[in-house]
Amino acid sequence: MKKVKEAVKYIKKHSKVHPTIGIILGSGLGSFTKEIKIEQEILYIDIPHFPVSTVKGHSGKLVFGELNGKKVVAMAGRFHFYEGYTTAEVIFPVRVLKFLGIETLLISNAAGGTNNTFKVGDLMIIKDHISMLTHNPLLGKNDEKFGPRFPDMSEPYKKILIDKAKNIAAAKNIDLQEGVYIGVTGPTFETRAEYKMLNSLGGDAVGMSTVQEVIAAVHMGLPVFAISVITDIGIRQEENIITHEEVLQAAKDAEPKMTYILKELIAVI
Q1: Which of 54, 141, 152, 169 is spaced 20 to 30 Å from 46 by Cα?
Q2: Class in CATH terms, 2-268
């Protein structure tokens, strides 16, 4: 809490924006910030105790401004357990956003499809998740200032926000998938056998982020909406090899549809 307060104090000193909506942007999805009427930008490296993005496709700054009449703060770049950060470091920014005053958290990510009816470029609303061998970020002594010892996870992704997003997409004739996201540690892409196993467990998509952030948000009582861009299909032909560059390109191609949905969702929150 002391570190969170120090980070918040620094940010408030350098930004006069009072955001009500926080946005976390995934790999290859950083162009969303172009939609924001930017008022301030703060580099992660300048914020006390803030981690620094090390992954290509994550620029590493907080972007403050206005979008569709709402004050927002966007994380252009997130943090992952596979980068060597602790779970406390991975979720640190989410806690900072909460104490900056956000009331809703929107999350995007790039994910691999384990549902063989999906195709590259699909958008999948996350309706639930499975944490697969990822460390729970709430391990250790609980601080009641953040939330309860045993937070309920029966509705980690708010149904009312999901319904609003579906209506927005339908009005624009944007096809949406809906499914379960499985969080893994990475950084390796899954083996063919692992993709099949994840699908058999009930997963529709798999990725290396989001789950820990959502747990931290729910712990603090923040409503969450999350959407995945399906950048590859895991259950695939033998000769198909997945590269990070291809993931970034697929995310870039699908970004306009995701951007539209998030923009319009912000307007009606």
Answers
A1: 141
A2: alpha beta
